[in-house]
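Consider the tokenized backbone below.
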């Protein structure tokens, strides 16, 4: 019997090898009257001092304060990542205190190593998440925060100074913690509330073609206006009720009148109204709801490959013939026109026939690779 195996069996009888090579052990250890699950990964040479110890965060919390003892006694050291020192016990104790102060109900997820931590906030009926990636030197070092925002989010961080003599608390700003990150997160959510109200109304009351499942950071929407016609809007998250960047997609004879209406009615735009209401006012239209238009009435599929999505692209070329109005993927129409002997090219425009109605169709090639 190998020496390591014997040692393990003697000291931890509840530990059992999990594989033939005996590099993985799993079992339980008892501490404070509770059993904790533990996983031990040994290196190829089976030397205990190079082993990795994986345990639940509950156990880490219990071991908190005994870290140096665990290291000495079991001589476990993480040699795989020699440059990452395990965080000091204070790391865990201060974190648990911070989460408790914040409220455990805000905690969505915590890694066994306490990083990342996921927190949630409910604002105006919407749930938002923030992922906090703590560094080993936390709280001396600012953590990285990941959020689903349409604007950059950076936290201001006042590191905790522990080695310096205590100065009057009134002079020194309070050191940052999870709580201050969370309150900055809430403030940012509040400042973006109108933007999400605007986007939610669009997603709820119109037929959005793109993106299919908008994230909270998505500022663009492609909305159905009617048969084979849509509008792409790009909303400014800082000024969500102002006129967004608009781009119409569809046959010329339908798109042109819409553009004229937009510039004629622009004075009707009132930032006090919602963006959707303003769009209705200036375009003099009602947005069809998804349920009203039948799929057969509104075929957005490409007339060449019969698919909607093709390598992430959707059909954005439309036949101008009002009797036809068929849509195509750019790449499909490009390949089609290139294969026709009757097609011709002038500068960056390809002229040819629509594969559906045989009427003239054009394809602008500027700025796009085919
Ligand atoms: Zn296609
Ligand atoms: Zn056509």
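A designed sequence for it:
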């Amino acid at each position: 019997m190998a020496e390591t195996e014997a040692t393990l069996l003697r000291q931890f009888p509840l530990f059992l090898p999990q594989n033939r090579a005996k590099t993985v052990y799993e079992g339980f250890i008892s501490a404070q009257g509770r059993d904790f699950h533990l996983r031990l990964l040994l290196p190829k040479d089976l030397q205990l001092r190079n082993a990795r110890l994986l345990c639940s965060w509950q156990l880490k919390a219990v071991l908190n304060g005994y870290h140096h003892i665990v290291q000495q006694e079991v001589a476990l050291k993480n040699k795989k990542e020699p440059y990452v020192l395990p965080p000091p016990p204070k790391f865990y104790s201060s974190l648990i205190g911070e989460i408790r102060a914040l409220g455990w109900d805000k905690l969505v997820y915590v890694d066994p190593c306490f990083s990342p931590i996921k927190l949630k906030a409910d604002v105006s009926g919407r749930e938002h998440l923030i992922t906090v990636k703590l560094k080993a030197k936390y709280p001396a070092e600012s953590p990285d925060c990941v959020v689903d925002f349409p604007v950059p989010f950076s936290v201001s961080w006042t590191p905790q100074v522990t080695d310096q003599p205590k100065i009057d608390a009134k002079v020194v700003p309070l050191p940052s913690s999870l709580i201050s990150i969370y309150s900055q997160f809430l403030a940012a959510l509040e400042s973006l509330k109108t933007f999400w109200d605007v986007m939610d109304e669009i997603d709820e009351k119109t037929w959005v073609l793109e993106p299919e499942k908008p994230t909270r950071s998505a500022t663009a929407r492609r909305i159905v206006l009617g048969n084979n016609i849509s509008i792409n809007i790009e909303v400014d998250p800082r000024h969500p009720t102002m006129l967004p960047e608009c781009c119409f997609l569809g046959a010329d004879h339908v798109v042109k009148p819409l553009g004229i209406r937009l510039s004629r009615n622009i004075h009707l735009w009132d930032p006090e109204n919602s963006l959707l209401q303003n769009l209705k006012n200036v375009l003099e239209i009602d947005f069809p709801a998804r349920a009203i238009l039948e799929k057969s009435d509104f075929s957005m599929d490409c007339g060449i490959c019969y698919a909607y999505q093709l390598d992430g692209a959707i059909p954005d070329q439309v036949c101008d013939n009002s009797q036809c109005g068929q849509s195509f993927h750019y790449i499909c129409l490009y390949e089609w026109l290139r294969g026709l002997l009757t097609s011709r090219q002038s500068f960056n425009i390809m002229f040819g026939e629509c594969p559906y109605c045989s009427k003239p169709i054009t394809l602008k090639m500027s700025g796009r690779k085919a």
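Residues 126 and 196 are 9 Å apart (CA to CA).
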